[in-house]
Amino acid sequence: MDYVIAGNVMIDSVRFQDGRTSDRKNMGGPSVFAYSGVRVWTDKAKLVCNVGEDFHPYFHEWVEKNAVDMSGIKVKCDHCNHSYLVYHEDGTYSQDDNATYFRSDWEQDLGYMKTSPEEIGEHTRGGGVKGVYLAQNVDHVFWTKLGAIKKRDSFKMMWEIEAPSAYKMYMDAVLYALLSVDIFSINYQEAQNLFEVASEEECIQAIQALPVACTLFRVGKKGVFVITPSERVFVPSITFDAETDPTGCGNTSTGAALYAFCEGYDALAIGVTANVASALNVRQFGVIPDFAAVRSMAFEKVRKTCEIRRRYQ
Amino acid sequence: MTKYLCCGNIMSDLVIDAKGNRSDPHIGGPAFYALAGVRLWTEDCRLVCHAGADYKELYGGWMRDNHLTSDSVRISAEHCTQHILQYGAPDGTFTWSSRYGDQNLGYLKTKPEEIETAITADTVGFYLAQNTDRIFFEKIAKIKEKHNVKMMWELEYPHEEDGLRRVREVISIADMWSLNLTEASLLFGIPREKEEDIIAEIMKMPVEMTLFRVGSRGAYCVTPTQAIFCPSIDIEESMDPTGCGNCSTGAAMYAHLEGFSPAEVVATANIAAGYNVAQYGPYPIFSEEVMRQAHELRVQKTKKDNKKDEDLQ
Questions:
Q1: Which of A109, B3, B112, B251 could form a cystine bridge with B272, CB 3.0-4.6 A?
Q2: For chain A, what is the domain count?
Q3: Could you tell me the fold of the domain covering B4-9+34-48+111-306?
Q4: Do the beta carbons of residue B192 and residue B158 sit within 8 Å?
Q5: How far is Cα A196 from Cα B13, in angstroms, rounded to an integer?
Q6: Hey, is the C-beta of B102 within 8 angstroms of any chain A C-beta?
Q7: Is A141 an interface residue toward B (CB < 8 Å)?
Q8: A241: distance to nearest CA of chain B, Å?
Q9: Would you list the domain boundaries of chain B?
Q10: In angstroms, what CA-CA distances link B150 with B111, B123, B193?
C-alpha cells in the first residue's frame, strides 16, 4: 500500500444560508475526504480510522463501488460522529447547535475515535508506504510517538493542522510537530491566527520560514498556493461543472497534494492536482462517488492545466 | 499479578464550592478514586488508564506512597485531563468543564482491549465508569468470558431520552452496578423523593449487587432480594465530596468480590467514602494503621447492624 490516510470520520449533514440542505447524511470527515483526494489518482491507498457501527449504510455503496480496503477501519462504538454543519454568508461554517446528537458526550466520542500513532503504525510497519495523511492537533506526546514511527517506517508525512491548534500561542508546539512533517496544509484563516498577520502575503512569508519542505496554503474559493522555502506558486480554483457543497474540499485537496508530493511532482503540478481533486469534491454532497469514473479525466485536466500554465509562464 | 483493576479516566479536579471558594487542582477521576476505595482495604489493586505526560508529576507521588504500580498507565497525550467542578446546585450535584477539552478526555478513555491486557491469572474483578455504548460492552463481554472476571459498572450520566432502554441493553454484561440518586431518578423517571420505588426498580436489574448512593445520607446495597441501607460514616470533618461515589463504588466491588454480606458491602463502601471526603483529592496515605482502623470500623459497624437486625427479630 502506497498511502495511509488516517484520522476522524464524520457523517455530515449540511445546511446553507439560502436554505439548501444536503440530500441526506453523507460520509465525510478529514480522513475520508483526504482518502478520496488520493484515490482519484491511485488505488494504492488505505483508510485507517475508527468508526461507529452505524457506518455501514453510509459507506456500503461507496465501499463496494470503489473496492475500498476495509482492513484499516475499526468499529469502536455504536455511532459514528455525526456532524451538522451550518455554512455562513462568508463561507465559514460552524456546528448546528440545534441538532440532536446521539449522546451528550459528542466531543468526547470524537476524542475516543481519534486515530492513535500506534494505529497508524500498524499499517506502516515494514516500510513501503510512501505517504501518510493526518489532520491533527499539536499534542507533544502524539507527535513524539508518530515521529518515532515515521523514523522506523520512512514515509512522507502530510499534516493538516486542526484549527484549534493554529494559534500563535502554540507556535513552539507547531514547530515541534513540523520536525516530523514533510508537507503541511493550512487554510487562510488558520494561517492568520497562527502567525497573527492579516494579509495573504504576510502569511506566505511566514509559511516560507517554516522548517517544512512544502506547504499547501489554501485560500478558499480563490485556489491554493504551493509554498516551498524557495518558491511560491499560486494555482486558481478549477471548476468542472457543478459547485454543490464545499465540505471537505480542504481535506480532499490536501490528500491529493500528498499524492503529488510523494510522486515527485513540482510545485505547480502539486497545486493543480490538489485543485482538480477539490473540483471533483465540490460537485456533489459528500465524497467523490466513483474514482474510476473520473480518474482519466482528472489526469488529463492536470496535464492540460500544467501545460497551459507552463506555456505562458 | 493483580486481583482488582480500576479502569477508566483519571483527571485532576479544581473544585469551586457552593460559596465560590476555589481549591488548588488535585488528583482524581473515576478510576483513580475507585482505586483509592479499593486501596483502603488491600494493596492488591492496579490503575488501568491513559494519562498525560504530566502523570508522574501529578500522580506519581501518591502511587508511590501507597505502594501501587503504574505499569498499566499509558502515557498518550501531553496533559492529563483537568476538570473544573462547580458545586452549588440545589440538589447537591455539580457541573463540570474540561480544561483541555472533551476531545482530550475522549482520546484518553480506556478501551476494552486495554483492560484485557491488564488482566492477570489472579484478577477477579474490574471497575469501570462507562456509558451505555453497546459495541463497547460486547467487547467487554468477550473479555469477561475469556478471563472469568467480574465487572463493577458505574453508570456515566444516563441519556435523557432512552437511557433506560440502553442500560437494559447492556447491564446483564456487568455483575455489579453503581449509580446515584440523581442518575436513578432520571433513568427510571421516578421522583427523587420516592426512593423505595427506585429501589424496587433497581432490584429488578439483572446484576448481583447494586450500590445505590444517596449522597451525604449514605448508600444502599441492593440485591435482587434485599436493600440494606447504611448511613454515611464520618472519619474526620467533611471537606470535599468529589470522588466519594467512585471511591465507595471501588470499595463495594472489593467487598462484594471478597464475599461480604450486603451490610458489610455497604459499610465498606461508606467507610471508604468517609476517608475520601475528609480532604480535597484522595486520602493521602493508606498506611497499615489506617487500614487496620478501617477494618475495625467495618467490624464494629457491621456488628451494630447485625445487633439491630437481631433486636428487630
A1: B251
A2: 1
A3: UDP-N-acetylmuramoyl-L-alanine:D-glutamate ligase (3.40.1190)
A4: no
A5: 33
A6: yes
A7: yes
A8: 38
A9: 4-9+34-48+111-306
A10: 17, 9, 32
Q: CA A35 to CA A258: how far, in whole Å?
A: 10
C-alpha count within 13 angstroms, C-beta hemisphere, residue A148:
7
Nearest to A141 among B76, B102, B111 (CB): B76
Write out chain A's pLDDT in tens, 313 residues. Answer: 999 999 999 888 888 888 888 777 888 999 999 999 999 999 999 999 999 998 988 889 999 999 999 999 999 998 888 888 888 877 777 877 776 666 555 677 889 999 999 999 999 999 999 999 999 999 999 999 999 999 999 999 999 999 999 999 999 999 999 999 999 999 999 999 999 999 999 999 999 999 999 999 999 999 999 999 999 999 999 999 888 889 999 999 999 999 999 999 999 999 999 999 999 999 999 999 999 999 999 999 999 999 999 998 7
Residue numbers of the domain that contains A36:
3-311
Q: What's the CATH code of the domain at A117?
A: 3.40.1190.20
Closest CA–CA distance from residue B180 to any residue of chain A (Å): 18
Q: How many contacts does A have with B, using Cβ atoms within 8 A?
A: 67
Cβ A111–B135 below 8 Å, yes or no?
A: no
